[in-house]
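hey m, so remember when u said the tokens were messed up on ur end? i reran from scratch. heres the input so u can diff it against urs
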Amino acid sequence: MPVLPVSSVFRTLASGTLTVLLAAACNQPTDDAQAREFSSAKKREPARVLVQPLERREMVRRLETTTRVESESQVQVFPRAAGVVVELFVEEGQSVSAGEVLARLDDRDVLLRLQDARSSLNEARANGPKLSLATRESQARVESAQGAAQQAERDHERNVALSKGGPDAPGLVSGRDLDASLATRDRARADFGAALLAFERAKVEEKNGEHAVARAEVAVARLELELSFTSIRAPVAGVVAERSIKLGDTVSNAAAAFTLTDLSRLRAVFYRPQREFELFVGALGSAGDSAARAEATLTATAEALPGKSFAGQIQRVAPTIDPASGNFRVTARLESEMRPGAAGLLPGMLVRLEIITERRPNALVAPKRALKREGDRSTLQLVVNGVAKTVEVTEGFSDDAWVEVAARRGEALEAGALVIVVGNRDLEDGAEVLATDATGAALGAATADESK
């Protein structure tokens, strides 16, 4: 094969390259036109969005908090006397009635002292008739002495009259007899005075006897009360939540022996920030405002009781704010009927409270994911005749999936209007859209045709 000169090879390569470049230059306008045509077709295609209709639903103002269950009547029972525990009658979990004996202390010493006090009382009572008889005897002696004194007085006055004779007649009573009657009168007076003193003394002794009986009765009553203290009794009806003593223990009033709780009267006490004070006071209403009270409802749930909920009712709201925390105290009653074989709320159990302070039964709501927030501004994008329309709204009550909305600036929102929930992130107002539901089906053939 003959070899070409180098200069011939370079001329051949240059000629081929030029041909390729000319062909590329001739084909360039055709490619740009196709790109512009494709871009124009892409811009005209409507955005595919997922929509849901606005609805009318009941919306509520719901607050949540956690707290522990308390019993409205939970007391610690302290022994009223010191002593050794000799009997126990109840155990933890047992129901007791008010006044029921829970335990008994050693009472032998008190019983002996009570027996001695009762003997003293019987003696004092037996001494009463004797003193009463002595008083009546003294009174009889007083009456006798009084009669004798009166007779001696009359005899002496008569002797005085007889001792006085006239100028021509001597007296019938001598001076010696007159002195004797005077002495008799004086003795009778003295005896009467002594009898009076004896009578007064008898009355005092009788009164002292009555006081002795009263003192003996008080001593007996005190020891009977002390004896009753050796029996530890339930001050209220309830369930034994804790027994802190055992047989043989020496107890005193320094430590509680039992803890009783009433499982039928449970409550929840929780605290809320002061900005919510008006909500609770308004929901609770006045004492006679039953309609306002009906709006405020409360439900309690506990992890220890899965699948169960317990109704409650707000009873009272503290009228003061704690200056340290800025919170106020709310007390609610919980309904938890204890039935055999059924678990219920117990004091100390942790519960989650859901409080509804207001209800709006016919609120216009939108899906939460349809809402767009920019600062203080909230908007929805509706589909109107295949075009996206932005509406500024005011938010109201909300739950996990829905939020109450109301149009601002004179706009109108109605139930059934389609609002974009997916695809509205970068969608401009006025853009053409193809609305689809959750199944992917287009909503409205007319709208789809117009978008094409």
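this time it looks ok to me. The radius of gyration is 55 Å. if urs says something different then somethings off w ur setup not the seq
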